[in-house]
C-alpha cells in the first residue's frame, strides 16, 4: 500500500509542476489504479482533477485527449470512433472491467509506459503526439523511448483525420494482461503498425506502403515472462499483424 503525507489539488499546471519538482517523492496522481498496488511513500500527492484535463476535445485540426480522461471515455467516445473506427474501443475493452476503466486514466496509462500496455500500442499506430508541461510536445514514439522524467503529461494530440484501423490482442483469459498486442492504421496507403506486450514497451514496428507481417516480426525482439515464451510470441506476432491488416483492408 502507498502512503501520502500531503495532498494537493493545484489550480494550474505551473503550480502542479512546481510541487512535482519540489521533492523527489512528490508524485502526480492519475486514477491511482497502479499506484495503489505499490509501496511508495509519497510526499505530496498532486491531484490534477481541477485542471479540466478530463475531456476529449475537437480543436478543428486535432483531437486532444486530456490526461485525466478515463479509459472508459476512450472506449465510448463517439468522436474517436468517427475518426479511428473501433481502435480505442477494442484496445481498452479487455482491461479488467468497467469500474476499473472508469477510474484508470489516459495520463497514468501513457506516462507509465507499461510493457503490457494496450493503450500505448493503440496510440503508436497513429501519428499521435504527447504534450508534456515542461518538455513540450513530442511524438508518441519518442515519448515511448524516452527515459522517465519528472514532468506532467497534459494531453495526447491526434490528427483529426479518418483512419482505417484495427486492434488485435492475444489474452489467455479475458481481463488478464495481454500476451501480445498489435495495432494497425492506414491512411493514403501508408500503414503504421505497432506491436506491444512483447513484453516490453510497445513500439512502432513499421511505417510504409507494403507491410510484410513476417519481415516486421523478424525485426522485433521478444522476451519471455510467466505468461508466454519469446518463441510463442514470435509465432503469433505475424498472425495478429495479418488479422489487423485484413480488417484494415475491409474497412477502407
Ligand atoms: C490489475 C491491473 C490490470 C491491468 N491490466 C491492464 C491491461 O490488461 N492492459 C493495459 O493496457 N493496462 C492494464 N493495466 C494498467 C491500467 O490500465 C492503467 O494504465 C494503470 O492503472 C495506470 O493508470 P492510472 O490512471 O491508475 O495511473 P496511476 O496509477 O495514478 O499512475 C501511474 C503512474 O503514472 C504517473 N502519472 C499519472 N498521471 C500522470 C500525468 N498526467 N503526468 C505524469 N505522470 C502521471 C503516476 O505518478 C504514476 O507514476 C492494469 C492495471 C492493473 C492495476
UniProtKB/TrEMBL annotation:
Gene3D superfamilies for this protein: 3.30.465.10, CO dehydrogenase flavoprotein, C-terminal domain
InterPro entries, sorted: CO_DH_flav_C (IPR005107), CO_DH_flav_C_dom_sf (IPR036683), Diverse_Substr_Oxidored (IPR051312), FAD-bd_PCMH (IPR016166), FAD-bd_PCMH-like_sf (IPR036318), FAD-bd_PCMH_sub2 (IPR016169), Mopterin_DH_FAD-bd (IPR002346)
GO MF terms, alphabetically ordered: FAD binding; oxidoreductase activity
Keyword Cell cycle: no
Domain FAD-binding PCMH-type: 1-162
Superkingdom, natural source: Bacteria
Keywords, in A-Z order: Flavoprotein, Oxidoreductase
Record has Lyase as a keyword: no
The protein, known as: FAD-binding PCMH-type domain-containing protein
